[in-house]
Design brief:
Helices cover 38% and strands 12% of the residues. The chain is of the alpha/beta class and 482 residues long. It binds oxidized coenzyme A.
Length: 482
């Protein structure tokens, strides 16, 4: 029966040659020419790569962020081409403008390095005229991003319901310290998030204090999470036509980055974590994941070893992993070929209780070389190692300058300074890093060109004091010198 059906089906397509050719080939060619991806996408651009606009061209962001977490997010969106309008309090602006100031009276590096490619408008959101302007911004923009303390936006009168009524397409994106729950009303800074998100309890040495990390995983990490939420909401809006709320709690963002530690917490129920150094040292495990020092999170034994010059250079160290697949190459490189076959060293389980001795032997070798020599010699054999690079070395690294990951930016009152450029590289949306705006630098431009207030209305807004006093700058925004 099945054979009969198959033959029948086969017979259907097998028409006489002369009749079959036309209907089969022609329609297929037509479809390919019209919709190459079959998803209603526009025609494939023929412009050169990087010359057909930016990824987020046309997206307008009402940037109500301050300090670090929110500004990290909106800076990324600006780098991808969104028009980011930063609303700041007249007179003072984002508090970081004046924090950790290295040059008196000049916007701090804290501010300038987190607010590239944005425009600044000063607005007292608590005044009647200020709210009038804000509401016009809400109607005009696609996304409002904020990281005020819990309830601050509502207290201003910008509840989700009000915003949604003004502009049902608007996406409202927020960073808060905690999600709904017992701590939702708390104000939160970087280190609070690192502690509350599981990072501090798992960072440091098992017999030492919990430690916070130098990487700003609470602030910048959460800003990154929020940016992804916003871009996803923009994508969904294309289908639904409506905006939505996007919330990223700093505690959640940090916990997400500590995912492997929650993995280990559950493994602990089934026995000790034998890749942790403390296992080899015979130190018992408690109820919670301990601090693992410099152990590798991937389960491969790893430590930081001294390199040539360690006596005087605090960064003359290298991270070394005794990865199982390259163990034999490591033995050859350090001059210990007998370990390749010796029953105490040949296989990972046999090595576990001897890791201290093994790393001491590897360190005898690394101490004879600079960290860069170790890097080169190991990588020649596909042995992954991590030189401990100082901020000075990173700032001076030519390849990072070349890719725009480290950029030199010119600023009208500060002069030239270094910044971290966009770490996410899109081949058809090339980032050009522009300097941060002065406080209220674009107030007039935004009132006139973006919000289309009449000269009379602008005079009224200004007379009310809602915008404060904006600085005058000659020339347009300077481009970064990469
Ligand atoms: N015009 C008038 N008022 C303005 C204004 C403007 N343009 N911009 C802000 N304000 C007001 C707010 O409305 C708020 O007023 P109320 O408290 O009366 O409602 C006030 O300024 C202060 O805002 P805030 O509470 O957010 O600021 P803060 O310095 O007290 O707290 C921070 C800072 C970061 C702890 C808090 O904003 C917060 O917890 N944010 C969420 C978590 C977060 O992002 N933390 C990361 C910070 S980076 O380390």
């Amino acid at each position: 029966m099945a054979k009969k059906k198959a033959l029948k089906a086969k017979g259907k397509t097998k028409a006489p040659k002369s009749k079959a050719r036309k209907p089969v080939t022609r329609p297929v060619l037509k479809v390919v020419a019209k919709k190459p991806n079959g998803g209603g996408l526009p025609k494939v651009s023929s412009k050169p790569w990087g010359k057909d606009g930016k990824a987020l061209d046309g997206v307008k962001i009402l940037d109500f962020t301050h300090v670090q977490s929110g500004p990290t997010c909106t800076q990324l969106l600006a780098w991808f081409g969104a028009d980011v309008i930063k609303v700041e309090r007249p007179g003072s602006g984002d508090i970081t403008r004046g924090q950790l100031q290295d040059v008196p009276g000049v916007d701090s590096l804290y501010f300038t390095m987190l607010n590239h490619n944005k425009r600044s408008i000063t607005l007292d959101s608590k005044s009647k005229q200020g709210m009038k302007v804000l509401e016009r911004l809400v109607k005009t923009c696609d996304v409002l991003v904020e990281n005020f303390a819990p309830g601050a936006l509502d207290r201003m009168g910008l509840t989700w319901e009000h915003i949604h009524a003004l502009n049902p397409r608007m996406i409202v994106a927020s960073v808060k310290g905690f999600g709904p729950g017992p701590y939702e009303d708390c104000k939160v800074y970087e280190n609070v998030a690192q502690c509350a998100g599981g990072s501090a309890s798992t960072t440091g040495f098992h017999d030492g204090l919990p430690l916070v990390t130098g990487a700003q995983i609470g602030d910048s990490g959460t800003g990154l999470h929020l940016a992804l939420g916003i871009v996803s909401a923009l994508y969904q809006r294309k289908r639904t036509g409506r905006g939505q709320r996007v919330l990223t709690a700093m505690q959640d963002g940090v916990l997400n980055l500590c995912r492997v530690k929650l993995r280990d917490q559950q493994r602990l129920a089934h026995g000790p974590l034998n890749e942790y150094t403390q296992f080899g040292q015979g130190i018992p495990f408690g109820e919670a994941v301990p601090r693992a020092g410099n152990d590798s999170g991937g389960g491969q034994p790893g430590v930081i070893l001294k390199c040539k010059g360690w006596e005087t250079d605090p960064n003359a160290y290298i991270y070394f992993i005794t990865q199982a697949p390259v163990w034999e190459k490591i033995c050859d490189l350090i001059g210990q070929p007998d370990w390749k076959t010796h029953p105490d060293y040949a296989k990972p389980p046999a090595r576990l209780p001897r890791l201290k001795e093994i790393f001491e032997r590897i360190e005898q070798w690394t101490k004879t070389k600079t960290k860069f020599e170790v890097m080169n010699e190991c990588n020649a054999f596909d042995i992954p190692v991590g030189p401990i690079l100082s901020m000075k070395e990173l700032a001076e690294e030519p390849s990072l300058r070349h890719t725009g990951t480290v950029v030199e930016v010119d600023h009208p009152t500060r002069g030239k300074y270094l910044s971290v450029g966009n770490p996410i590289k899109l081949s058809d949306s090339i980032t050009e890093v522009e300097r941060s705006p002065l406080l209220g630098e674009h107030t007039d431009e935004i009132l006139t060109k973006v919000l289309k207030f009449t000269p009379r209305e602008i005079a009224e807004i200004k007379a009310s004091g809602a915008t404060g006093h904006a600085p005058q700058v000659s020339g347009s925004r300077a481009q970064a010198a990469e």
